[in-house]
Amino acid sequence: MPVQSFTNPPAKQTVIAAAKTRIFDKGQSVNATVYEALKTQITSNQLRPGRKLIHQELAERLNVSRTPVREALERLFQEGFVTRVPRRGFYVAEIDADEARELYELREALEIYALRRSMQRVIKPADLRKLDSFNKNYRLLIQENTTRERMIVDRDWHLALASLAGNRALLRSLEAVFERLIMKIRTDGYRTVRGEEALNEHLEMMKALRMDNKRVAEHLLAEHIQGARMRLMGHLTELSR
After folding, report:
1. Are 46 and 123 part of one and the same domain?
2. What is the pLDDT of residues 90-113, one digit of tens each?
3. Are 71 and 33 in contact (CB under 8 A)?
4. CA atoms lying within 13 Å on the CB side of residue 100
5. pLDDT tens, residue by residue, 121-179
6. Residues 52 and 110 occupy one common structural domain
7. Contacting residues for 197 by C-beta, under 8 A, at least 6 apart
8. Has residue 228 been placed in a domain?
């Protein structure tokens, strides 16, 4: 199964223009189109975690009435993309400590299992070169201080590694975990000073893969994921102060 990569987030005007085109040119319902447009803006980080979603403002941006916006927000609330605060309204969902811990526990379980399966198979040189290419991109992003882009490249490296297990259901589950983590982390103030260290951990895992050292590879991967979890938990603690 090919690993999916996020493209650069579309401009706000592009999303709105596309929404209008679908409404008026293709006959899709206004409710469905508004829902898709808002979901796209949330998942592409145009509407950032913690932002308040004001019905009238969104309706004006999408050139629709408030009714389809209200229904879209209710649907996004049911799906976990937004939160609803009594007497205050809707907000783009943010991750909390409990969800972060649960997602990282699930991520570790999935990735460790995938690694064990992968190392029971023959890892091809082409697979290793693909993993190397993600690490090269990650190194470039360290210098540019691009937090979210670095998170996406890191995700792609981990998904590429997990894909070697050949289990599509597992990979879809892991993709969903990463989607939740990346979408719901407020990156403002999220310090990724461990960028170089995290990259070195990737490189050490690459060495273990090339040497077919299953025990070391599994140990390094578990420590790497646990370290990422602790950094996020620390970030969430800072936000709550």
Report:
1. no
2. 999 888 888 889 999 999 999 999
3. no
4. 22
5. 989 999 999 999 999 999 998 877 677 788 899 999 999 999 999 999 999 999 999 98
6. no
7. none
8. yes
